[in-house]
Amino acid sequence: MPSVETGSAGFLTASSPVRLQFAQKAFIVAAGRLLLVRKAASDPFHPGRWEVPGGRLEVEDDLDLDDHIRREVWEEVGLKVDPGPPFHLWQWFMADRSPAAREGLIRVVAAARRCHPLTFDVGFGNRDESDHLDGCAWVPLHELGAYELIPSLRPVMRAFLRLPC
């Protein structure tokens, strides 16, 4: 095994460039229900599957992590939230589809946060088409197992359901 001093590339960086991004996901709970959003048929990765609102940090614009999650929730579902502390960290890899990338990957490191809604009327007026969302539902916690989640969210959902109420 090469030493750290040799500067050898890891298995992912040896084969293709990897960009790092940070994301947050909001687990918004009200009256025993969790807000889920559905990916549209146009979503390139998980069409028709469910997840929670949130997204990737915009490095130049999101100076505060609380403001970042507030912005993502406002843009995707039109709610104002009070963000709580993170309860789970995870990562996933995805193809880098930016014009400058050839065959690169994006490594997304994400934090899940339980959020308290300050407003309750969901609206899609602020949504960007690149979010690829076409619906949402306030789902009773005991019914979450019936929803087909995006794969990377499944262990996060299990961690969420283990949290004290």
From TrEMBL:
Any Pfam family from its record, for instance, is NUDIX
Return the InterPro entries for the record: NUDIX_hydrolase-like_dom_sf, NUDIX_hydrolase_dom
Q: Which cofactor does it need?
A: Mg(2+)
Q: By its UniProt entry, which SUPFAM superfamilies does this protein fall under?
A: Nudix (SSF55811)
Q: Does the keyword Chloroplast apply?
A: no
- List keywords of the entry alphabetically: Hydrolase
Q: Where is the Nudix hydrolase domain?
A: 17-162
The name under which this protein is listed is Nudix hydrolase domain-containing protein
* Organism (species): Actinomadura napierensis
